Structure formats: structure tokens, C-alpha cells
Amino acid sequence: DGSRSRLPLPPGPKGYPLIGNTFDIPKSRAWVTFAQWGEQWGGIMSVNVLGQTWVIINDLAVAVELLDKNGSTLADRPELPMATLCGWDRALSSSRYGPRFREYRKLIGRVIGTRGSMKKFHPAEEYQATMFLKRVLANPDRVDDATRKTAGAMILHITYGYKIQEEGEDPLVHIADKTMEEFSDCTTTGKYLVDLLPFIKHIPAWMPGANFKRLAAKYQKSSDNMATVPLNYVKEQMAKGTAAPSYAADLLKEVNISEERMQDIKWSALSFYGAGADTTVSVVQSYFLAVCLYPEVQKKAHAEIDSVVGRGRLPSYDDRESLPYIEAVCKELYRWLPIVPLAVPHRAMSDEVYKGYCIPEGTLIFANVWKFLHDPDVYQDPFVFNPDRFVGASPERDPTDFVFGFGRRVCPGTHLADASVWINIVKTVAGLDVTKALDETGKPINPVPDTTDGVIVRPLPFKCNVRPRHERVLDLMIEAIESFA
Ligand code: HEM
Fold first, then answer.
1. Which of 64, 262, 321, 348 has the fewest CB atoms in 10 Å of its CB?
2. Are 268 and 107 within 8 A, CB to CB?
């Protein structure tokens, strides 16, 4: 429709000819710069990056209206030629909008689509969260390692019913971590020429300058491996009758699975690791950072555990309703250090009109979730970690309404994330006392409450002191672990 394209783009800074605003896009903490631009240009604005329109949303109401209500037309993902050559178009987070995308979402929704559907995975979650305490206490200087190991272990446990080996490096975690590094590499903006000049993907692999094609073939082998090895494990376990409940086992129970369905099961399952392990780990690490800086929060959380659960056992999901303060701590963790600060960009599949502006086909849309979560009109003293903002009769807006993204692309792992984060935090509160680490002169070190860069970010590395909260913790932990065996 020609009349649409005569409408103006959303407002934004004037760019240079050809390159537009490319050099205005900051390499680091883009969400902070985008929020500042929002002060000048408003809740919806646009920039031009190498000929492509980017729409940046700095107002939650606009994001909800545009992305939640516009259904399928704004639910595509950007074209990623190098990642596609490496086989990553088969994973959900980078798949284009279409039949395969809808099929994956249907399968995932069927198994983990509601809070109630997570119940069958509670034993796995409980086990891994208790193992987390063990992993932390075995090596209290490396809380980061224990959180990373646990997040990966939880995802593999729920996706495939696979329990990682505790000693040394687990072979499946090794494959997954190596492959995820390759994923980051092949999706790095500007690294591969084929992303700028997609037509060169057609040159034969033996030609000079075609190194990227040989690398892509190697990366594709890894992604195949990462999808196939664990699925074969589930099939073997099912054949032996020893399969634990899992996402894959649930779907493989179906009779007469077509080849196409098998591929959908395999690649939807693969999508869990990258999107699920990297995210929950950041939330749990943020807890350790937050209570170093806000010891009074830990004190209150400890007091809640003592009064509701006591010291004779570790808390479980059955206690969730009776622990409102811990619930508020979890919400505040999602808010304070946003781990997907610009969500994941959506791509417009056709020309759209919004409030008299044109959003042309191919536009990338970024929702500045970081800004929504630090809006002083919505959250009082937004940079302060204060769970009490979510307690009482008039709580501030629940961040879990929107930290999981928007519309048809909203995180399909929301309930899995919710269950994993909560159980990890509640066991941590019950089991551990976290304090600031001391420097060589004995002075407490103040960790910096900030994150790395990227699509999914995590707290900057920091040190803290960790010890069991009371003398019975180790016994309770061991008893619990034995009861799972
Ligand atoms: C704290 C935890 C998590 C947060 C904050 C989070 C957040 C997000 C966000 C913002 C998106 C993009 C949504 C959009 O494009 O509008 C997303 C997508 C996704 N998430 Fe999560 N997520 C979390 C945990 C998980 C877990 C545990 C899983 C495991 C199944 C998961 C699986 C996915 C997948 C597969 C996608 C891609 C969906 C698509 O492109 O259609 N996430 N997540």
C-alpha cells in the first residue's frame, strides 16, 4: 500500500548519508544511550543503521500495544546469514516466523506452557537446587562456577532427563558450552562479511575468501551434534524403560512420529539450552551480588524462612505461597539487573502503521526493557534493590509481566524460568549466608552492580563470602540429596 510508505518514520536523530546513524550506536550499554535518546525523541523513535530502520521503544505501553497486539506481523526475527549457514535457523530463538516456528511453539507450550505443567519437573528442580548448595559449599570461592553448572544441569535435566556428572567435566555440558560459544561467534554483528553481503553465501567452499563457508560447515556439525547426542540418550533410556520425565521424553511418547515431527522435537529441545541456561544463571548470580550490597534484604529473607519453614528442613515448592518476601526478592532480581535488557529484536514482516508513523517491512524493533524497569515514574528509586516495592496492598508493577518479551515471541520458557529461579533462590536463602569478600587489608569489597554487554547479560564478575547459614544446613542438604537417589 503506497500510502503507508508516505507516512513518516518515528522521529529520531538525523543521520549521515548512506551510513545513517551507524556510528551513533554505542558498542556498550546501548540500552542506557537508547533511554537517553528516548528523553529527546519520545516513547517510539527510529534510527537508520546501514540502511536498515531500527525502531526503539522506550515506553512500555507502546511495546505492549505494538508487539503484543500486532500478533504475527511483528513477530519475525532478523535475517542472520552466517548463523543460518551454521544451522542455527533450526533453533527457535533465531528461526524466522513461519510453520516451523509455530510448530516448535506448540510443542513447547504443550509440555511447559503453564505453571501447573511444571509440577512434574519439580523433583528435578528440587534436586538440582539442592545440588547447587553442595556445589557452592564445595568451592565457596567459585559461586559463579556453581551457578553456571547448576543452570546448565537444570536445563539438561528437564529437557532430556539427563543428570550431569559431578566430578570433572560432563561430556554433554562440554558439547553444549563449546557449541554455544560458536553460536555467539557466528551471530557477532559485523564479524562475517556474509552478514553484510548475503549473496556471497553462494560462492563455493573451495574458493579463496570462502573460509567462512568451511567454518560454517564445522559449526553446523557441532550444532547437529548438540541436538542429536542428548536426544539419542533419551531414546535409549526410553527403550530401556529408565527414562526420567523430560520435555523430550514427553514428546517422544507419541506413536508413529513422522521424520518432520522428529526434527521439530529435536530442534525445539535444543533451543532450551542457549536460551534457558544463560538466563537463569544471571538471575541467581544477581542474588549474591544484591545481598552483598543490601545485607538487610538477606536478613529479612532469612527471618521469613525461619518463621515459616524453620531450621529443621529445607524449603520446597509447597512453601511458595507462604513466602511472600522471597517472592518479592525474585521479582526485584528480574528488575534490578535486567538480563535481556533490549529483549530480542523483532522484525516487521510488512509495512505497519502506528500512531501516524510508518514501520516499514524489514524494520528491527527493540524494546528497551532496561528502561521500562528503571523508569522513576513506575519504580521509586529504580537503582536501589528493594523487594518491599512488591509487598503490600499497592505494589509497583510486576516486572515478570514484560521481562520475558512480547507477543508471539514471548519467552516460551517463562514457567520453567520462574520455577528454576524461585527454587534456587529459596534454597540459597535457607542454606547460605552471603557477605562481602574482604581485600588483603581486611576491608570489605563493594561489588559493582552492573552487567556485561550482549543480548543476554550477566553481573560483572565479583567476589563474595559464602558459608552455611546454620550448623544443620550440611546435614539437611545431604539428607535431601540422598532422598532423591
Ligand atoms: C530468567 C529467565 C529468562 C528470561 C528473563 C527470558 C527472557 C526472554 C526474552 C526477553 C525472550 C525474547 C522474547 C521476544 O522476542 O519478545 C526470550 C525468548 C526465548 N526464551 Fe527465554 N527467558 C528466560 C528463561 C528461559 C528458559 C528457562 C527457557 C527454556 C526453555 C527459555 C527459552 C526461550 C526461547 C526458546 C526463546 C525464543 C522464543 C522465540 O524466538 O520464539 N527462556 N526469553
1. 321
2. yes
Distance, C-alpha 66 to centroid of its chain: 22
Rounded to whole angstroms, how far apart are CA atoms 373 and 280?
18
Contact 217, 211 (CB under 8 A): no
Out of 404, 410, 421, mutate this one to test ligand 1's pocket (max ligand atoms within 8 Å of CB): namely 404
Q: Please say whether the beta carbons of 290 and 331 come within 8 A.
A: no
How far apart are alpha carbons 126 and 405 in whole angstroms? 27
Task: Assess whether pLDDT exceeds 80 at residue 3.
Answer: no
* Residue corresponding to grid cell 528502561: 371
Which residue has a Cα nearest atom 40 of ligand 1? 93
pLDDT tens digits for range 157-205: 999 999 999 998 899 999 998 999 999 889 887 788 888 788 888 888 8
Q: If we measure between CA atoms, which residue out of 43, 21, 10, 96 comes closest to residue 352? A: 10
Q: Quick one: which of 437, 433, 456, 423 has its CA closest to 132?
A: 423
Candidates 73, 80, 9; CA nearest to 45 is 9
Give me the count of residues in the chain. Answer: 485
DSSP string, 256-298: S--HHHHHHHHHHHHHHHHHHHHHHHHHHHHHHHHHHH-HHHH
Pick the residue whose CA is nearest to atom 43 on ligand 1: 411
Domain annotation for the chain: domains and CATH numbers: 2-484 (1.10.630.10)
**Cα–Cα distance, 466 to 485 (Å, whole number):** 27
Residue 186 in marked binding region: no
CB atoms within 10 A of CB 224: 15
Q: What is the DSSP string of 300-345?
A: HHHHHHHHHT-SSS---GGGGGG-HHHHHHHHHHHHHS-SSTT---
Region 88-100: mean pLDDT is 94
Question: Which of ligand 1's atoms lies nearest the C-alpha of 282?
Answer: 1
Which residue did the predictor score with more confidence, 239 or 16?
Answer: 239
Residues 6+ apart with CB under 8 A from 335: 373, 379, 399, 403
Ligand 1 atom closest to residue 75's alpha carbon, by position in its atom list: 15
pLDDT band at 349 (very low <50, low <70, confident <90, very high): very high
- From 118, 411, 456, the mutation candidate for ligand 1 (largest count of ligand atoms within 8 A of CB) is 411
**Averaged over 222-238, what is the pLDDT?**
96
Rounded to two decimals, the pTM is 0.95
Ligand 1 site, residue 269, Cβ cutoff 6 A: no
| Max CA pair span of the chain | 73
Q: Report how far apart the first and last C-alpha atoms of the chain are (Å, whole number).
A: 64
DSSP letter for 461, please: P
- In three-state secondary structure terms, 223 is helix
268 lines ligand 1 (CB under 6 A): no
